[in-house]
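User: Reviewer 2 asked us to show a designed sequence for the structure in our supplementary figure. I'm pasting the structure tokens here. Could you produce the per-position amino acids so we can include them in the response letter?
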């Protein structure tokens, strides 16, 4: 019988037959379908009962939250205990403490019968030293931006205060609308006060508060208020546009004078790139490499400074001095003279990289223009029927869509400028986060108070 079965399979395979794996199913399709229906009904009943059981615990919801947070803390403590070297009478703990907290730790340890020793990390330990960013209330929201990229190395610099002004300004510049900025700021403040988000969400809404203020301020100077909503509403009502100074006479307008805005964006880009190079020079000088700072940063600055001098005076001597400095110094790591010269000449190719970096800042103008034009288009679509009710519906839907789209796009492009154009000039990444054993709760807010004796 088995031999006949195998022979039949061989014949069927010639005609493209593939045997299905029914995974233990037997019987007819009808019988199995009926069996599945019974199982589905049983699962539905089980689900309904589970939901009912959970709902019955609703009065104890706050107690359950408290228990969950408490259990999480106990689990964390027990996890740490497993990492200790211990005996019946003593234990050995090896760990890290932030330098500003060292005195507080030693004062605490003095209350116990124990011995301790502290030392600064050695150079070879730098890759393993955990990182704790020095954040205050203003720079703390930037933790999200930094952590999304990578924490700085121990011998790097804290990037939060260095990217805060640029990030907030760039976001506001691209988002530039007084109405959008006010809504974003107010909404973020309400969420922070009522929901009290923690962790990444807390950073996010803190950041949205800052960039919302920036967008409102820059929108005031560019004359943006939900696109051209005021002029559109006045047109529907058959009245002249109100003579509001910031609307009728903006400081600059991306729609009316895009070239000026583009040049401004390029200038902003140059400022950020030069700032990044200055930070790199500081890091080199701090580490005792002043000559490297002169050769790797100063040479480029001489070259950059020579460009406007040459354009204005026709004298390109400063540019050639910068070129000579680069050619003579950028290949210095090579052991041979030929290698040094080749490396120096090859470094001039980085001119195109800097040029490309500056061009990247044109996205500031593009995003500002896109948001303004799309907002005005929705206003135009709403005004076509000539009815305020219809206009209001299209206005709300259109601007909610435009605002949401702009928030995402602006955040992405602002982050990109920090990560690629700015961080590439000085940032040393690769740090791992400092995760101390502490009360880290999800539902319960812990208020720490000092007891004065």
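Assistant: Here is a per-position design you can include in the supplement:
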């Amino acid at each position: 019988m088995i031999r006949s079965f195998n022979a039949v399979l061989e014949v069927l395979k010639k005609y493209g037959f593939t045997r299905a794996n029914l995974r233990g199913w037997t019987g007819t399709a009808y019988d199995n379908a009926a069996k599945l229906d019974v199982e589905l009904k049983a699962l539905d009943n089980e689900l309904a009962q589970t939901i009912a059981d959970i709902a019955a615990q609703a009065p104890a919801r706050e107690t359950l939250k408290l228990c969950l947070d408490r259990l999480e803390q106990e689990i964390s403590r027990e996890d740490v205990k497993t990492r200790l070297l211990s005996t019946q009478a003593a234990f050995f703990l090896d760990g890290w403490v932030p330098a500003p907290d060292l005195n507080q730790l030693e004062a605490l340890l003095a209350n116990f019968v124990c011995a301790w020793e502290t030392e600064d990390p050695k150079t070879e330990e730098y890759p393993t030293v955990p990182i704790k960013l020095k954040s205050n209330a203003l720079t703390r929201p930037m933790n999200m931006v930094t952590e999304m990229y990578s924490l700085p190395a121990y011998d790097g610099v804290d990037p939060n205060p260095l990217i805060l002004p640029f990030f907030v300004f760039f976001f506001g510049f691209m988002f530039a609308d007084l109405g959008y900025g006010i809504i974003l700021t107010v909404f973020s403040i309400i969420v922070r006060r009522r929901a009290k988000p923690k962790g990444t969400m807390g950073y996010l809404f803190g950041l949205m508060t800052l960039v919302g203020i920036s967008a409102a301020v820059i929108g005031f100077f560019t004359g943006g208020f939900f696109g051209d909503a005021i002029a559109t509403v006045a047109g529907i009502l058959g009245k002249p546009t109100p003579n509001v100074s910031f609307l009728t006479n903006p400081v600059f307008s991306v729609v009316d004078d895009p070239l000026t805005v583009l040049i401004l964006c390029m200038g902003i880009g140059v400022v950020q790139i030069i700032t990044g190079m200055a930070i790199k020079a500081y890091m080199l000088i701090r580490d005792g490499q002043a000559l490297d700072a002169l050769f790797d940063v100063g040479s480029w600055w001489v070259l950059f400074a020579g460009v406007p001098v040459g354009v204005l005076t026709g004298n390109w001597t400063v540019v050639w001095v910068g070129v000579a400095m680069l050619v003579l110094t950028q290949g210095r790591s090579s052991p041979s003279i030929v290698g040094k010269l080749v490396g120096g000449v090859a470094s001039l190719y980085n001119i195109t990289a800097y040029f490309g970096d500056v061009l990247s800042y044109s996205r500031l103008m593009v995003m500002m223009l896109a948001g303004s034009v799309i907002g005005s288009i929705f206003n135009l679509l709403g005004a076509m029927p000539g009815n305020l009710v219809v206009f209001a519906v299209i206005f709300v839907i259109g601007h909610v869509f435009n605002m949401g789209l702009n928030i995402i796009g602006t955040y992405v492009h602002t982050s990109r400028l920090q990560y690629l154009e700015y961080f590439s000039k000085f940032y040393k990444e690769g740090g791992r986060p400092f995760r101390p054993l502490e009360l880290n709760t999800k539902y319960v807010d812990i208020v720490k108070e000092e007891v004065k004796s």
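For the response letter, you might also mention the following. Residues 132 and 357 are 30 Å apart (CA to CA). The chain is about 65% helix and 5% strand.
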